[in-house]
Amino acid sequence: MLSKLFSLIPHGHRWHRIRISRKGALRPGSRAGLATHITARCQRCGARIEKIYYRDISDAQARRWLG
User: What three-state secondary structure class fits 48?
Assistant: First the structure.
């Protein structure tokens, strides 16, 4: 019961299980190239996030942009 209540209260997500991969993707403009794909899960509420950046960025930069 308490965990359901805490999931309704706004909080700053604490991302863990961060996976960063680089895959080929079709950019919006019909150009093919490398894209950085990021997935993560919040430790507190279990929310998942998936982001795609249509260029090749470093791991440190991807973690910074996750927030």
Answer: strand
Query: What is this structure's pTM?
Result: 0.66
Length of the chain: 67
pLDDT in tens, 11-25: 677 888 889 888 877
Round to whole Å and give the CA distance between 19 and 30. 26
Cβ proximity of 44 and 14 under 8 Å: yes
Pull the structure tokens for residue 46: 């279990």
Range list of H helices, 1-67? 2-8, 59-66
How many other C-beta atoms can be found within 10 angstroms of the C-beta atom of residue 51? 13
